Amino acid sequence: MILLNFSHPVSPQQLAQIQALAGRPVDRVVSFKTQLDQSDSFKTQISKLFLDAGLDAVEWQTQPILVNLPSLTSAAGVVLSEIHGRAGYFPPILRFRQTQGSLPPVYEVAEILNLQEIRNSAREQR
To answer: Could you tell me the strand order of the sheet in which 65-68 lies?
Structure first.
């Protein structure tokens, strides 16, 4: 599985949690620097990030992909749109939560959200 990380670095403990929740190993982590220029187009900036992902068209469409989205919601929307356009589906995403009672804050993987499944279920409500 390929983890596309648009957020904070993933710790070894978080990586182990991800693999346990996914039931498969993470073979590659692709990290993106998502410090975006607020005065420039997010579409343009994020499209440029994807050029450096190192995945070809076949990989986008055949390899299992998991995403750690950027925390900026509008950037997350653009990232999801880029991935859907390249892969043909909405990827599963990670949700983190603060570990209870941790000081300084420590974050653990709360769940993997299957966005394609959520989308498919929502279509039944039309």
So the answer is: 28-31, 2-5, 65-68, 92-98, 107-114
